[in-house]
Amino acid sequence: DELLEILSQTKDPTAVQPHMRKCFDNIARLRFEDDLRMSRFVSAEGEEVEFCRDLYPKGNVENWLLDVEATMRDSLRLIFQQAVAN
What we know:
Elements: H1 2-7, H2 20-23, E1 27-32, E2 38-43, E3 48-50, H3 61-85
Antiparallel strand pairs: 1-2, 2-3
């Protein structure tokens, strides 16, 4: 039931917020800006990580959630690389 609800949220991307913990381990929500740009992801503990590139929810939910996942990984990879370099 929840999967169908997520997949049906093409008109309102922010409606996936209640399901983020089920889609991604320990991710409580995404931060949506006024123009629907997703700017960061937020853990259940309130830790925020800014995305390394602009990300907009375009197309099917399952496709832009894959983009969210890839951008999460890229953002963390960049942060780790910068930390090791310093």
